[in-house]
UniProtKB/TrEMBL annotation, chains A, B:
Highest taxon above the source species: Bacteria
Organism: Microbacterium hatanonis
Secretion signal span: none
Protein's name in the database: LacI family transcriptional regulator
One GO MF term: DNA-binding transcription factor activity
PROSITE patterns, sorted: HTH_LACI_2
One of the Pfam families matching this protein, by short name: Peripla_BP_3
Length: 347, 347
DNA sequence: CTGAAAGCGCTTACAG
DNA sequence: CTGAAAGCGCTTACAG
């Protein structure tokens, strides 16, 4: 009925250890021991405490526990946005699925994910009582990572910081080399002979790694002409269209698209050149999205398994927070190619 | 270099109040006062403390503050999922945008959103040191809301609990009555004379309100035959298709779709009946999504302004947490209809 | 204007 | 097997 107003709502009217002590006639220390199972408390006492604790709906105060060195159960999740203007459906799709999986598995493990995406992240670090932090797609030489390091906060990342010399111990990632090879092999078998990689200068490891893998594949396949176009940020659709038009005139038969925002611009540009997909030009996106699935033609795409990545990320963070070795978690996640209508049938 | 292992990472090596006291030669209480600006501390002392505090990168321990009754800055965000099998792109689209807006504005206000969606929510309530909780789309007679009430946790909701008699004071919502009228008026002007509302039995206020508004509109327009089909949960595409086929044979010229998951099933069913959209059957969805935009034809839809809702939700929660009256926040969010290709031109 | 004391809710040595 | 004491980092009366 009446609202509770300014009072600290999370701890209003809660039973404390003292309440149980009073109720059972035991001392607070005994109650504490009985609850944690630590000391050698008699079964009878233990039962008495358990009963009272249940009856009074006792829950230990997390902040008090934290002051004694316990974990809070809070884990931070940071998604660094490289440049707001470069955002689009596809990236969001990936991010959302990844975040959601992370959160779901965290909650299922009695951990509470705090969303830290945004600009105020650094202010939160070292203040917020989180046990650890997961960072999705850190930027090159990411200052956040250095801050985390400095403050001694346990953290893991999805994708490595390309400019950092830190080891990959606490990094979850796709097997980009493998997946790029599979994708390009597939395109090759579908007739690719002259391809264009469309990428952007975000500096994030995702772009970098894909470009590298693409180049490596190209060198191993001299019968395929592999070219690359790097779009500057902020993303400009008209520019992307121009690049694609030029490529079409150069006889490119395959576009390997690492810049999801450019998707419709690419489709339009190809159509404007009077060419058709996939007969004249094949198109494959390096990240899957609802949009890719819904467009006509449906766009073939690499499914990076964002949900699996999110889950691994959490598992790895748990490892690090608890001081375990990282080896217990498989850190490389395989991806799949979803062949759809924007690529041809196998020849 | 070496990782920090099991130690509580958030508070490792942090300067404490005592450090500043030692550094300045003042007592801890004086330092505390100087920092908070409370007592009448001399300017000179205050400056001395500020300097030391900055130099030592002092940040108050949130858990300690919390024990003294301060807020933690943590706010819970709960999205109740009515039934996992009924989930789909459109709902997710809405949810994601809403959540994201909530999180963004929270972070911008130095609040930290904790994602509580999932089954373990109730375990967290009363344990987690959150200042308040926002619940998106509570179910009918939602036990979570009762728990929140019981525990005295400050909360607000997006959409009211249809079976609760609580006032709408702390509820943010769309102006569903208004938007339904606008949408149906628009459809009417586009030739709707025989319409079907396709809804589902989720019991959430969203469905209920739309159905009610639809009925009200129908009564005011005797020249339009308005029918309703309620799909049972879990959602079954085949069943939805059957309902739509029947409706098509009955001469329905407009489908008002409140069940986004049924979108493709509806399209397929209409096509299977040899009818075309929008010429034979118009289609309008009550929630917008990337999918609705990308499909061919592009689906007309109600844009519920999820981002605005998320922002309002946060603003309202802040109000409640700080003990203010709710009137300072406009709780009714207007929506818009995005007329696309699945509805006809105005006649 | 500044400091010593008590206490928020808990745990962990240390005595009995 | 159980309890009294000290202390995590802070603030807020209360004395000086």
């Amino acid at each position: 009925m009446a609202s509770s107003a300014a009072k600290d709502s999370a701890s209003r009217d809660r039973a404390t250890l003292r309440d149980i002590a009073l109720d059972t006639g035991l001392s607070m220390s005994t109650v504490s021991q009985a609850l944690r199972g630590a000391g050698r408390i008699s079964e009878a006492t233990r039962a008495r405490v358990a009963e009272a604790s249940a009856r009074l709906a006792y829950r230990a105060n997390v902040s008090a526990l934290h002051m004694r060195g316990a974990r809070t159960g809070l884990v931070g999740l940071v998604a660094t946005v490289p440049d707001s203007t470069s955002w689009s459906v596809g990236d969001l799709d990936f991010l959302v699925r990844c975040e959601r999986a992370f959160c779901d598995v965290a909650l299922g493990s009695d951990r509470y994910p705090v969303m830290l995406s945004g600009s105020s992240v650094s202010g939160a670090i070292g203040v917020l009582p989180v046990d650890g932090v997961a960072v999705i797609d850190p930027g090159p030489n990411d200052p956040l990572l250095r801050l985390l390091e400095e403050r001694g906060v346990a953290y893991v990342t999805l994708g490595r910081d390309v400019l950092s010399d830190a080891s990959d111990e606490w990094v979850v990632d796709n097997d980009k080399l493998g997946i790029t090879r599979v994708a390009l092999d597939g395109l090759y078998q579908r007739g690719m002979r002259r391809s264009l990689l469309l990428t952007a200068d975000t500096g994030q490891n995702y772009m970098t790694d894909v470009a590298q893998a693409y180049d490596a594949w190209g060198e191993a396949h001299p019968d395929v002409t592999t070219t690359t176009a790097v779009l500057p940020l902020p993303f400009d659709a008209a520019q992307a269209a121009r690049v694609v038009s030029d490529a079409c005139r150069d006889g490119v038969d395959t576009i390997y698209l690492a810049v999801e925002p450019a998707l419709t611009a690419v489709l339009d540009a190809v159509a404007a050149e009077g060419l058709s997909i996939p007969d004249d030009v094949q198109l494959l996106a390096t990240t899957d999205s609802t949009r890719a699935q819904s467009l006509v033609p449906a766009i073939s795409a690499v499914d990076l398994q964002p949900a699996a990545l999110g889950e691994r990320l959490f598992a790895l963070l748990e490892q690090r927070v608890s001081g375990a070795v990282p080896d217990a978690v498989e850190r490389l996640v395989a991806a799949d190619v979803r062949w759809r209508d924007s690529t041809r049938a196998l020849v």
